[in-house]
Amino acid sequence: MRSDFPNLFVFDHPLIQHKLSCMRDKTRSTMGFRQLLREIALLMGYEITRDLPLTTQTIETPLCPMDAPVIEGKKLAVVPILRAGLVMAEGLMELVPAAREGHIGLYRDHETKRPVEYLVKLPDAEGRLFILVDPMLATGHSAVHAVDVLNRHGVKDSQIRFMALVSAPEGVRTFHAAHPDVPVYTAALDSHLNENAYIVPGLGDAGDRLFGTK
Ligand SMILES: O=P(O)(O)OC[C@H]1O[C@H](OP(=O)(O)OP(=O)(O)O)[C@H](O)[C@@H]1O
Ligand SMILES: O=c1cc[nH]c(=O)[nH]1
Ligand SMILES: [Mg+2]
Hints:
Its EC number is 2.4.2.9. With about 210 residues, this protein is α/β, with parallel strands linked by helices.
């Protein structure tokens, strides 16, 4: 789980690894690719929410009253980085339907490889844990920008967890240099970036493969 990088956790669960391999296959259909990402997000979400605080709520079972353990779903915010993060958010929202959902719209400029922001809509920061999701951590600039946006909105680094499907070492380094206290959870730490800043071996352009665009 823990990796050689500080604050980077690699999910080595066989189901996650198997489904990721299916996604990497370039012959995978758009429909299959989306379905697999949603399923992996659900599995990663199960691990990432392991230490959520529990409170109790008094309920009546058919036999007697009891103080039953519950999570306060609305204390959680799921924030996808658009577009590709949306499908991961679907998986997480299925796990915690009461969670709030924010959106940060970014696209990577093809020339500069730097993120361009086009939308920010976020729930209140107060007392919430924010799970930021994006399938690809490549150069890391999009993820750094998204955490900067959260910070400006009043969310502290200690309130944020970042979940990426596939990460490049370059991106992990850049992200941790900017936000060392934000843990990164990923399913794979790949080899490197190519000359177009794509992750190798990676899975190609996540947004295009998810939504059938080019
Ligand atoms: O780490 P970085 O080098 O910044 O790259 C990663 C970003 O690139 C992809 O999005 P893209 O810009 O293709 O937008 P899209 O989701 O709309 O396709 C991906 O989903 C990340 O947001
Ligand atoms: O490999 C990469 C890098 C950035 N964005 C993607 O979708 N894939
Ligand atoms: Mg894209």
